[in-house]
């Protein structure tokens, strides 16, 4: 595996239409609710998390697409 480390700073994924999640060819990102909702009449507030970062191939499409500059991709480690 390439060994890239993906990190995401707080952002408003709904404002950009979840671009990173839509554009990532490796399917690294997951939109997860910020908290558990029991009141189903309230629209949940989501955050983007790199849940499957081990699939990252380092294409940087997410970094280019993020209007907030919230995504950082590091790696692969030396010797990989």
Describe this structure in a few short sentences.
With 80 residues, this protein is of the alpha+beta class. It is 18% helix and 20% strand.
Largest sheet: 2 strands, antiparallel
H/E element sequence? EHHEEHE
Total tally of structural domains: 1
- What is the overall silhouette? elongated
CATH level 1 name: Alpha Beta
Largest sheet: spatial strand order: 1-4
What is the annotated CATH architecture? Answer: 2-Layer Sandwich
Structural class: alpha+beta
Number of helices: 3
- Tell me the strand percentage band: 15-25%
Total strands: 4
Distance between the termini: 8 Å
Mean pLDDT across residues: 87
Q: Any idea of the CATH topology? A: Alpha-Beta Plaits
Can you tell me about this structure?
With 80 residues, the protein is α+β, with helices and mostly antiparallel strands. It has a single domain (5-74), classed as Alpha-Beta Plaits (2-Layer Sandwich). Helices cover 18% and strands 20% of the residues. The chain is built from 3 helices and 4 strands. It has helices spanning 13-16, 19-23, 61-65; strands at 5-8, 30-33, 46-49, 71-74. A two-stranded antiparallel sheet has the order 1-4. It has a two-stranded antiparallel ribbon with strand order 2-3. The radius of gyration is 14 Å and the shape is elongated. The chain starts with a strand and ends in a 6-residue tail after the last strand. The mean pLDDT is 87.
Tags for this entry?
two-stranded antiparallel ribbon, Alpha-Beta Plaits, two-stranded antiparallel sheet, 80 residues, 4 strands, single chain
């Amino acid at each position: 595996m390439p060994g890239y480390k993906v990190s995401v700073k707080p952002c408003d994924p709904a404002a950009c239409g979840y671009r990173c999640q839509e554009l990532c060819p490796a399917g690294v990102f997951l939109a997860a609710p910020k908290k558990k909702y029991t009141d189903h009449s309230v629209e949940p507030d989501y955050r983007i998390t790199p849940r499957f970062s081990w699939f990252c191939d380092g294409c940087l499409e997410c970094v280019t697409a993020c209007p907030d500059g919230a995504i950082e991709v590091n790696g692969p480690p030396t010797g990989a």
